[in-house]
Amino acid sequence: MSESRRTRLDTPRDTRRQIVRRPALDADAFGVFAESFARYMGTAKFLLWMTLFVSAWIVWNVLAPRELRFDEFPFIFLTLMLSLQASYAAPLILLAQNRQEQRDKVVAEQDRQANARAHADMEFLAREVASLRMSVGEVATRDFLRSELRGLLGDIEQLARPDAPDEQGLQEPRPAP
After folding, report:
1. pLDDT tens-digit profile of 81-104?
2. How far is residue 66's CA from residue 68's CA, in Å, rounded to a whole number?
3. Planar angle of CA 149, 151, 156, nearest 5 degrees
4. What does each C-alpha distance from 141 to 111, 130, 137, 138, 151 come to in angstroms?
């Protein structure tokens, strides 16, 4: 006996045995049918065909010879047919709407997760830009370097002049000619 067919010891036994097996319905296949049915009922093509069917029904039962008519004036059988169609259409449309709602929930959750990731990425990038700004604030800029170099150049030029005072404000005596 294969491993999959043997009962496992860690799995409880099914205490209730079914005498008559219930038919297994594929809920997804039925849901797809319900969606296609609901989608078709919401089209102009369906309304056109239904209008033609009802018109032909009424015309036949009014203008045909009396022995060929099958639904006289109050059109009870037509009313029964339309009620039967509506009684089946309503649950199928509701099933299709429920499936669409489930799909919308999944899409909304995926959108929420994508938005959360995008928000986290934006926060990370904002922190990185802030740290770059702080780092750039500590770096010497081109204008700062130019002003410092101009100041140093002025100091060098002043020291290079023969009549320039030394650092302590004293002039060196000049040799006599």
Report:
1. 999 999 999 999 999 999 999 999
2. 6
3. 90
4. 44, 18, 9, 9, 16
Contact in structure between 61 and 72 (CB atoms under 8 Å): yes
Q: Which of 89, 75, 80, 85 is nearest to 33 (CA)?
A: 89
What confidence tens digit (pLDDT) does each residue in 20-74 have?
877 777 878 888 999 999 999 989 999 999 999 999 999 999 999 999 999 999 9
CA distance 51 to 64: 19
**Do 92 and 37 meet the contact criterion of CB atoms below 8 Å apart?**
yes
> What is the rounded CA–CA span in Å between residue 79 and residue 59?
15
Q: What's the rounded Cα separation, in Å, for the pair 5 and 32?
A: 32
> Which residue is associated with the tokens 């037509």?
78
- Look-up: residue for tokens 């036949």? 60
Virtual torsion, Cα 74, 79, 81, 82, nearest 10 deg: 140
**Are 61 and 71 spatial neighbours (Cβ–Cβ below 8 Å)?**
yes
This prediction has a pTM of: 0.54
